[in-house]
């Protein structure tokens, strides 16, 4: 017997189904992403947005209570900060920032949080799937007893965790905060907001997740991926806005704006109007019909999956 | 049960033919898959792994239909030629991931990864990132990921590629040990004939998508046309004439002759002919034809022989020996 093989031990255990591989792929992808410093930088940024909403909701509640207890005072003091016109300040918190725990609170939260999620996906897409191509790791995965869709599903699961950790989970934390501050009735009466938040998260996961995987499977490296991502989400947005708001083309041209489409569907899921009450006037401009947006977004997701599965074809794995 | 049974496997990439009418019945054992680049080795591996459906024909591996990809790959450990490592993972994480992809639980996969890395002598390197590994370590890591679920069959694609002579020898003895001592069937795809000679007991030679030869490696070695290196003194012209008349082919190498002799030749014939022509035989050394020369000689013979060219149908002429 060869001396180097004295320690070879046959494997006596049993092997589970291919579904285990999906979890393993998702875990491995997440592990690689969590080891990147950039992820944590963007995650902290995302948390800052969350902290603003969280403390804003708390502040509004505290001031409301103070107003009730002290019989409509005109001013208030928070620590060292003195608020001269309390009524105006409360209106600002309620009607401009929408921090009263209504559907608009969650809609706005998703809108701002989504920006950071978009950026994070652009920077991590290459790590998720692109490097499996560039480093030639695809044969390693596909020569194991799995099908190509197990591989894609594993990667998608990893995206799903990232997107929801950045959007849905913090939104649900805000929901819990509102419930604890406003009262237990809030949980029962506004449960649709929790469901709507989950639905909004799913829309973001399905659209952004599918798209980033499909793009990363094609362009593979980080810088080109970020550029393509910027074209899809920023340039197309600018183009749609120019066509509809500037040149007065049909409102359906806004369907080119993928980010707006997720926003329209997400807002509908929350039961809020698809407009942001901020200084950005264009956000309250007319939108296409919900079914049109849903069809375009659905078609885009299907196309992304078809392309992705085509790119992960088994015959690319050998030689 | 045969390891591989293929029946008229043909595959086209668009209009380009990669394999044509490959029919093989290979028993379990250590099999070398030989052929130059573009011979169809990789396509055949893809088909045997169940990753590529052949355009025509059918086959089985260990009794399993080639269309049952995942079930097939449970029985196969595949070591690709390319690096196929996942950057960012350590060696032990990489092997454990391979185990989990095969369906092992987290703890079992980690334990198995440590076992295999011990076996392959990577005790200290296991916690380093795979991209920091040397070529030899990468090759061993690739072998470990193929072995992780202890499959009965190993497909090894150019396992000695990029290794120095020590590394190559070590890798070949590992492969040989796995086949000989642990009963693994091995399909070794390579263009290095010496690797096949060292490890395999059977060989399949592919050329332009067709099976040129298949059979026992020992029998293939029996087809060797041996040569003798002679050093002569005297009327060498007369000696050359009688040798050529007897069917020998002569190549001059400086002061020596390299004489390729026909089958059944014995050394005493040299002494007889030398005596006839009055030549003194100063030295004689036997030189075995290596497999590379044999392979290309057989290729030339095939190219000019009656089986040359390719018909549209699947004819099974030549090919089996030994």
Descriptive account of the structure:
The complex is a heterodimer of chains A (319) and B (322). Chain A is mostly helical and 319 residues long. Chain A contains twelve helices and two strands. Chain A has helices spanning 19-34, 37-69, 86-96, 103-134, 138-142, 148-166, 168-182, 185-189, 191-219, 222-246, 258-270, 290-311; strands at 76-78, 81-83. In chain A, strands 1-2 form a two-stranded antiparallel sheet. In chain A, α2 packs antiparallel against α4 and α11 (258-270) crosses α12 (290-311). The two termini of chain A are 32 Å apart. The model of chain A has no long low-confidence stretch (mean pLDDT 86). With 322 residues, chain B is of the alpha/beta class. Among the domains of chain B are: 76-151, no CATH class; 222-289, Alpha-Beta Plaits, CATH 3.30.70.100. Helices cover 36% and strands 28% of the residues of chain B. Chain B is built from eleven helices and 15 strands. In chain B, α3 packs across α4 and α9 crosses α10 (268-277). Chain B is elongated. The model of chain B is unreliable at 305-312 (pLDDT under 50). The chains are: A mainly alpha (319), B alpha/beta (322). At the A-B interface, α1, α4 and α5 of A face α1, α2, α3, α4 and α6 of B.
């Amino acid at each position: 017997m060869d001396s180097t093989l004295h320690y070879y031990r046959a494997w006596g255990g049993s092997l589970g189904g291919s579904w285990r591989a999906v979890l393993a792929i998702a875990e491995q992808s997440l592990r690689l992403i969590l080891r990147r410093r950039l992820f944590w930088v963007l995650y902290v940024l995302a948390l800052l947005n969350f902290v603003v909403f969280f403390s804003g909701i708390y502040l509004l509640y505290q001031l409301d209570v103070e107003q009730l207890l002290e019989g409509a005072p005109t001013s208030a003091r928070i620590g060292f900060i003195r608020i001269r016109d309390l009524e105006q300040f409360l209106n600002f918190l309620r009607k401009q920032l929408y921090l009263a725990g209504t559907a608009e609170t969650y809609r706005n939260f998703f809108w701002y949080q989504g920006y950071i999620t978009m950026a994070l996906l652009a920077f991590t897409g290459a790590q998720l799937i692109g490097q499996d191509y560039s480093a030639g790791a695809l044969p390693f995965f596909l020569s194991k007893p799995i099908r190509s869709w197990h591989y894609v599903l594993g990667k998608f699961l990893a995206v799903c965790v990232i997107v929801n950790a950045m959007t849905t989970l913090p939104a649900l934390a805000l929901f819990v905060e509102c419930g604890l501050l406003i009262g237990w009735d809030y949980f029962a009466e506004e449960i649709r907001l929790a469901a709507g938040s989950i639905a909004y998260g799913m829309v973001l996961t399905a659209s952004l997740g599918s798209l980033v995987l499909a793009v990363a499977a094609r362009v593979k490296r980080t810088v080109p991926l970020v550029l393509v991502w910027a074209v899809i989400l920023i340039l197309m947005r600018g183009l749609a806005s120019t066509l509809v708001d500037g040149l007065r083309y049909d409102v359906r041209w806004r369907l080119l704006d993928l980010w707006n489409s997720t926003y329209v569907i997400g807002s509908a899921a929350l039961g809020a109007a698809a407009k942001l009450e901020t200084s950005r006037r264009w956000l309250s401009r007319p939108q296409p019909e919900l079914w049109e947006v849903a069809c375009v977004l659905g078609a885009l997701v299907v196309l992304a999956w078809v392309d992705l599965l085509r790119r992960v074809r088994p015959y690319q794995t050998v030689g | 049960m045969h390891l591989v049974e293929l029946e008229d496997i043909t595959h086209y990439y668009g209009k380009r033919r990669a394999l044509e009418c490959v029919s093989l019945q290979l028993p379990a054992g250590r099999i070398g898959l030989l052929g130059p680049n573009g011979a169809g080795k990789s396509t055949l591996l893809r088909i045997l792994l169940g990753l590529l459906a052949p355009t025509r024909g059918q086959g089985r591996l260990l009794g399993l239909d080639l269309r049952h990809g995942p079930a097939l790959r449970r029985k196969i450990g595949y070591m690709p030629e390319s690096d196929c490592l996942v950057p960012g993972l350590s060696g032990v994480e990489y092997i454990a991931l391979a185990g989990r992809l095969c369906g092992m639980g987290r703890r079992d996969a980690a334990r198995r990864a440590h076992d295999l890395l011990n076996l392959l002598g990577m005790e200290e390197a296991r916690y380093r990132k795979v991209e920091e590994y040397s070529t030899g370590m990468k090759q061993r890591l690739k072998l470990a990921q193929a072995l992780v679920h202890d499959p009965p069959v190993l497909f090894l694609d150019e396992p000695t590629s990029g290794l120095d002579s020590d590394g190559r020898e070590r890798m070949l003895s590992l492969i040989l040990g796995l086949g000989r001592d642990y009963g693994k069937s091995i399909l070794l795809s390579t263009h290095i004939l010496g690797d096949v000679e060292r490890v395999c007991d059977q060989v399949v030679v592919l050329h332009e998508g067709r099976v040129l030869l298949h059979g026992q490696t020992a029998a293939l070695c029996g087809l060797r046309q041996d040569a003798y290196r002679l050093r002569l003194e005297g009327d060498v012209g007369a000696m050359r004439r009688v040798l050529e008349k007897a069917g020998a082919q002569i190549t001059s190498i400086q002061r020596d002759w390299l004489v390729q002799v026909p089958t059944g030749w014995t050394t005493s014939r040299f002494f007889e002919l030398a005596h006839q022509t009055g030549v003194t035989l100063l030295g004689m050394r036997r030189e075995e034809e290596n497999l590379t020369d044999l392979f290309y000689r057989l290729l030339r013979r095939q190219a000019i022989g009656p089986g040359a060219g390719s018909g549209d149908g699947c004819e099974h002429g030549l090919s089996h020996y030994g």
